[in-house]
Amino acid sequence: MERAGLAPNGLTAIVVSHEHADHAAHAAALAEEFGVPVYLAEGTQAGLPEGPALARVERFRPGERFTVGDIDVVPFAVPHDANEPAAFRFETHGVKLALAVDLGYLTGLVKEQLRGCDCLVLEANHDLEMLRRGPYPWYLKQRVASRLGHLSNEALAEFLECDFDGAARTVVLAHLSENNNSPEVARLAAEQALKRRRNRFPLSLSRTPELLVSQRRVPLGPLRF
Length: 225
Fold this sequence. Notes:
The chain is of the alpha/beta class. It has a domain at about 95-215: 4-Layer Sandwich (Metallo-beta-lactamase, Chain A). The protein contains eight helices and ten strands. It has a seven-stranded mixed β-sheet with strand order 4-5-6-7-8-9-10. Strands 1-2-3 form a three-stranded parallel β-sheet.
């Protein structure tokens, strides 16, 4: 947040998608430090590892809208090997942003929730060939590539070519694996998919979105809509 020019004490809430450590390990400490509530599903709370208790909890159910300040939040279920994982659509002042990472495949429900959004932040976790040849043990490769694992460049490319409605002005590729992907490989797969989409739908009036690739330790600049 500091690198993005934001003060951490400006936080008003923490919204947790699922209990895995890279998403939730420090939620309790952050919530206590800044005195903010943590929004999470019942299954996520039950799956949290032993540690400090959450002082202020606001539970949500996937499919039921809730509000944080002037932002409407729509959580929706995703297929992932967690207790009650969710992705989110955020709506405020007529702008819609969807965040969907940590999911094994794009269900019909997920695709519906992505429609009409101004910005999509979508998982491009791994390249299938890099995963196959990479250093992970076999059981972990199977987990990552499963329908309860993570979205591959190829799966996201299929969505961008065939099911993307063209509404988004910006598409952000996120949650890239450090071992089984690279920003260049992920971007190329997405760019080629969007090019194929233009060829498939030459009469479409929808714009070609700006394509951004998130990095692990460097924040994106502000996105304005």
